Amino acid sequence: MAAGYVVAAFLEAAGLVGLVIAVLKMRTERQARAAELRSFLRSGQIPTVDTAGTRRPADTAARAVAVPYTSGRDDGSAARPSPARAALGRAFMSGGAAPRAGLTGAISAG
């Protein structure tokens, strides 16, 4: 073998060894965290966490917001249709019959 191939094989082997060491280290750390969490959960201790200033989702669910309903405008003037509503009305009137809600025919399953 030429010297270049030996060096390349050595570097690849060193890289693989490094990967194996990293995987083993990650596995050991994960096992240590799991053991620490297991012992904490079995101890029954409740951690003290400062929750001042933070919002909890339960706070928003308990609060009800009432929005008043008004049937018309305050000044009593007649409501005019918006330009968009007028354009839609013209499009449906000139295009023929208005589209019907619901199914127009039977659907065959094949």
Structure description:
This protein has helices spanning 3-43, 57-62, 83-94. The protein is flat and about 90 Å long. The protein has three helices and no strands. The two termini are 68 Å apart. The chain is an all-alpha fold and 110 residues long. The model has no long low-confidence stretch (mean pLDDT 75).
What are the main properties of this structure?
110 residues, flat
- Beta-strand percent range: under 5%
Taken from the alpha-carbon principal axes, the silhouette is flat
Estimated helix fraction = 40-55%
**What's the number of extended β-strand segments?**
0
Tell me the number of helical segments per DSSP (H or I, 4 or more residues long). 3
The rounded Rg comes to 36 Å
H and E order: HHH
What's the story with the biggest beta sheet?
Answer: none
Low-confidence stretches: none
Query: Termini distance?
Result: 68 Å
Q: For the residues shown, what is the average pLDDT?
A: 75
- What structural class do the secondary elements suggest? mainly alpha
Fold topology:
Blueprint: H1 3-43, H2 57-62, H3 83-94
Short description:
The protein has 110 residues and is an all-alpha fold.
